[in-house]
Write a structure and sequence with these properties.
There is one protein chain. 38% of the residues lie in helices and 13% in strands. The protein is built from seven helices and ten strands. A four-stranded antiparallel beta sheet has the order 1-5-6-4, with helices on one face. Strands 2-3 form a two-stranded antiparallel ribbon. The chain has a two-stranded parallel ribbon with strand order 7-8. A hairpin with a 2-residue loop joins β2 and β3. It is an alpha+beta fold. The N terminus and C terminus are likely disordered.
């Protein structure tokens, strides 16, 4: 099997890894579901809120988020560029990763392609999927599932990393936990209605609005966030990765 070693949180969250998106010109004139995933991935990379190592192992190359398997080849949101042509659907050999003009990211000097086979299945976001045993998909990814899984795992990883910093920012942790819980409750509420979950339907659009309203996802270290649930107080966003690096430099300077 083609696998990537997954470290524990303590081992990996402070390691250095470079993730750079390669220049590319979009040729599609209409909006497609893969563009929504691409935009969210780019947003998380740009946030610098968790280390790239953690982002890679928890989201970009994680079976819990998405797992594509063709015989002995594995792919996820990211797949190594040199194996993407082998990751085809079993029914009609449709490419899971764009064969021409692919969306390419460089990870520590190695090229990976972003999944592009994301269909228009009318499916609600499954909030329980991350707690279930991952199974390889055989045809295409469900966009609403993917969006929620990515957001959920990002919040869980950020909260976990913040909680492991020696000088914990409890106010920030509480804020992030409340925003995350509000997101989960809002998605559950959407699931209770008879919405059209097609990518051009109202359910999908409402889900995109929920994600767009999440303050943390649009933040970077140092940004001030308004806590509307606590008498309009505020918190300052911090990166546990950067906090560790700063503490490390301070120790080395002694």
């Amino acid at each position: 099997m083609t696998n990537i070693h997954v470290c524990t949180a303590q081992q990996s969250q402070y390691l250095d890894m470079k993730i750079c998106k390669q220049p590319r010109t979009e040729v599609t004139k209409k909006a497609t579901t893969r563009m929504v995933i691409e935009s969210l991935v780019d947003q998380l990379i740009a946030s610098n809120l968790i280390s790239n190592e953690r982002l890679f192992e928890q989201i970009l190359y994680n079976k819990d988020i998405i797992w594509i398997q063709n015989e002995n080849i594995n792919g996820h949101l990211f797949a190594k560029a040199d194996i993407t042509d082998q990751l085809k659907t079993k029914t009609n050999s449709f490419m899971m990763y764009m064969p021409t003009n692919p969306i390419v990211y460089e990870v520590n000097g190695e090229h990976y392609h972003l999944i592009t086979r994301i269909d228009s299945t009318r499916a609600k976001p499954n909030l329980e999927r991350l707690s279930q045993a991952p199974k390889p998909i055989l045809s295409a990814a469900r966009v609403n599932d993917l969006l929620c899984s990515i957001v959920m795992r990002f919040y869980e990883t950020y909260i976990e990393d913040l909680s492991q910093v020696a000088d914990k920012n409890k106010e920030l942790i509480n804020f992030v936990e409340r925003e995350y819980q509000h997101f989960l409750e809002a998605v559950k509420e959407l699931n209770d209605y008879h919405l059209n979950w097609h990518p051009r339907g109202n359910g999908h659009e409402l889900l995109l609005k929920l994600i767009d309203n999440l303050q943390l996802l649009k933040s970077q270290p140092g940004k001030v966030l308004i806590d509307f649930s606590n008498s309009h107080s505020y918190v300052v966003v911090e990166s546990p990765y950067r906090m560790f690096k700063q503490a490390q430099k301070a120790v080395q300077a002694l």
